[in-house]
Amino acid sequence: VNKKSRTRLLIATGVIVVVFVIGVVFLVQKQGAYYRQVSDLTSGQYDGKNVKVGGRVIDGTISRDDSGVHFEIQDLTGKSDTVEVSYSGQMPNTFESGVDVVVIGKYASNVLTADQLQTKCPSKYKGSASPAPAAQTQ
Amino acid sequence: MTLGNISLTLALVLSVAGVLFLALGMRWDRADFIRNGYYAVYGFFLATVVASAVLLQAFLKKDFSFGYVAENSDASLSVFYRIAGFWAGQQGSFLLWLLLIAVVTVVIALLDLSKVQRLTAGAVMVMCVIGGVFAALMVLNEGSNPFVPAEAGMMPFGLNPLLLHPGMVLHPPALFIGYVGLAVPFAFAISALLLGRADKMWVNLSQKWAVFGWLFLSLGIGLGAWWAYVVLSFGGYWAWDPVENTSLVPWLTATALLHAMTLYKSRGLFKHWALGLAAATFWFTILATWTTRTGLIQSVHAFERNPLLVWILSGFLVVTAGASIGLMAWRWRRFASHDQFDSIVSRDFMYYLTNLLLTLFAVAVAFGTVVVPLTMEKTVGASTYDAIAQPLGVVVVLMIAVCPLLAWRKTEGAELRKTLILPLVTMVVSIPLWLYLGFQSNVWGFIGFLVCGFAVGAVIQFVLRSARRAAGPGRSLWSGMGRAFTGSRTRTASYVVHFGMILVVAGLLGSAVYKQEETAIVKVKKGETATIGDYTLTYMEMTGGTGPQNSTRANAVFEVSRDGASLGTLAPHTEIYPVSGAAVRAVILGSPREDLFVVTDEPFDDSSKTLALRMVVFPLIQWVWIGSILLCVGAVVSLWPKARRQEQEARAASPADEDGELGGASA
Fold first, then answer.
1. What is the pLDDT of residues A38-81, one digit of tens each?
2. Three-state secondary-structure class, residue B542
3. What is the distance between the alpha carbons of residues A65 and A69, in angstroms, rounded to a whole number?
4. For residue B380, what is the nearest residue in chain A, using CA coordinates?
5. Which pLDDT tens digit goes with each residue over B75-125?
6. In terms of Cα–Cα distance, which of B223, B213, B216, B219 is closest to B281?
7. Which of residues 41 through 80 in chain A touch B, CB cutoff 8 A?
C-alpha cells in the first residue's frame, strides 16, 4: 500500500509542478513586456506587443481629458525618436514635463497605451558616496 | 578614525574571532572554546551597540557633520522622525540589520552559556558569519558606511515627505526583525547538518524564532502595504514592485517552513523540506537586499548601483546557496523521514501540498522579479502576478478548509462526509452576503468567496471538535470550549491565523477583482459633481492649511453622498514642500464593506480651474487589515510563554491528543 501511495504522491507532485511551470512560462511569454528604447519601437517589430520603455517627457505635449493623460516621450539614447503615450492610471506625484519616466504597456499604431507609469526615483534615495548613475534604461 | 568606524571594525574582528572559536569548539567538542566564542559574541554585540548609539546620538543631536544624518534628517523634524532617519537610507538600514543580528545572536548565546551545546554553538557561529558579512560590508564599502562625514557646505535634506508616516517608520525595522528572526532556523539547520544531528533538537531550538521572524515579517509587509495605500496614493496597496515582491518571497517560504517544522517535530516527516525551506528563506532575505540595494533590478525604490556592494552580496548569495546545497547533499540519507506516507486523502498530504504550492509560488515570484528582467530583457507586471496569485490564494483557502476535515495518515469516507456538513452550511449561509455585495458579477471571484464561506465553517468545525474532545463523553460541548482554546497555544494560534488568512484572501479578492475606478475632470465651482458607483461627490470649497516640514496645503473639500444620503466630506489635498515640491495626497472613506479612495491626478492650489479627480472603490479592503492583525495575534499567542502548570498539563495531555492541530502539533 505504501509503495502505491508513494507513487501517487510522486505523480501528484509531478502534475502540479508541470502545470505550474507551464502556466508561469506561458504568462511570462504572453504578458511579459520587452525592455526596449523608444527608437526601437519605430521599426514596427513591436506592433501589438507589450513593451517597457524609458523616455523623457517632452515639454508642451501633456494633455488631459476624461480618458486620462496623453504625452510624448523622447528617446534617452540620444536619438531623435519620440512616441506618444496614453495613460489612464494614477499619476505619480513627480510627473511633469522634462522628467524621465518608464512606461509599460501595449504598443500599437504608434501609440503606447500604458498600464504602468513610473517616474524615476526621487534623488532622495541616492546616496552621496558616488555620483548618481545617469537616469538610463538598461 | 571615528568612534563609529572603530566600533564597526571591532564588530568585524570580534565576529571573526567568534566564528574561529566556535568552529574549533564545535569540531573538537571543547566547551571552553565554545565559551570563549560566546564571549567574543558579547563583544561583537557591544561593539554594534556602540556603533548604533553613535549614529542615533547624531540624529538626536542634529549633528549634520555626518553625511548620512544630513541626508536623512533636518532640524525641523520631531524626535520620532529623527529616530526614523536612522533607517531611512541604505547605510543606516545595514547598521540596524547588523544590530538586530547581534541582539539575536547574543540572546541565543546567553541562553546556552550554562549548557554549551555543540548544536547551539554551530548556530551562533553561522549567525556570526552573517553578522561579519554585514560588518565587512560597512567597513569595506564606503557607500554602505553611515559614518562618512558630510561634504563641506552640505545642507540637510530632511526626510523624504513620503516617509513621514508611522507605517513607514515602523515598516523597515519590522521587516529587518523578521529577516533576522528567520536567519535563526537557517543557522540551526546548518549546524544540524554539520553535526549530522537528524533528531528534532534543531527544530525545538529554532521553531519559536521562526514564528517570531514570521510574525515581524508579516507585520512589516502589512505596514508597508498600509503605508502604500494611504500615503503613496497610487490607488492600491500592492503594486508587485520588486521591493514588495522580494519581501513576499521569504514570507511564503517561511510560512511553508512553519508547517514543515510542525510535522518534523511531531512525526519526523518533511525533514528535507524543513532544512531546505530554512535555507531558502534565509537565502531569499539576502536576495531581497541584493535586489533592492544593488540597483541591478529596476524598481521605483531601488538604490544606486555600487560595484563593491554587488560583489559582496552576490558572493554571499553564492556561498550560502553552495554551502546549503552541499551540506544537504552530504547528509541527505541521514535526514530521511522515518515515517511513511499512507494516503493522499489525509492531513499529511495537505501539509505536503501547502509546502509544495507555497514554494512554487515563491519561486515563481522570484523568477518573475529577478530572473526574467536579468536574462530575458523583459519585465512582468501586476497582471501576470495577479493571474498566478488569485487562483493560488483560493487554493490555499481551500486547503485551510479541507485540512481540518481530514484525519492524519488516512481518512475514512463516512467520517469525511460527517465533517463536511458544517462547512457546507456556512458556505450556503454566506451566499446572500456575497450576492448583497454584488460579487456575482465575476464567476471566478464568486467561486473564491464560496470557498471562503466553506473554510470559515471548517475552522469553526475544528474548534467544536476540539471542544467536544476536551469536554469528554457525556458532558456538554460548552464545558470543553474553554479547554479547546487554552489547551494548546499552537492550536489556538492556528485557529486565529487560519481564520485571519481566510479574511485576508477574501479581502484581497474583493479589493482586486471587484475594484471600481473612475476619473473625472471637475470644475472648481461649488455644486460640480462626480460619481462612481452609488457615490456622488459634490465640490464645496477650497481651503488652505499647513502640513509637516513647513509645507503648505490646499484642500479640495467634497461632500460625499451615497444613494442620496450624505456621508460627510472628503478633502483630497496637495502638499507643497519647500524642498521637494508638490505632492498629492489621497483621502479614504472607509467601512468594512468597502473603501472610497479619492485623490487628484495633478497637484492643485487655490488658483486651479479644474481638478483631475480619481475615485476608486475597494470592496472588503478592511478585511485585509483585520485579517493581517489576526495573523499577528495568532503568532503572538503561539509565542506567549506558558505558565508552568499549563505546560505540565499540556505535556500530560499530548500523547492522548490523537487529532493534533490544524496548523501545529502540541508543544
1. 888 877 788 888 898 888 899 889 888 877 889 999 888 888 88
2. strand
3. 7
4. A32
5. 888 899 899 999 988 899 999 999 999 999 999 999 999 999 999 999 999
6. B213
7. 52, 64-66, 68-69
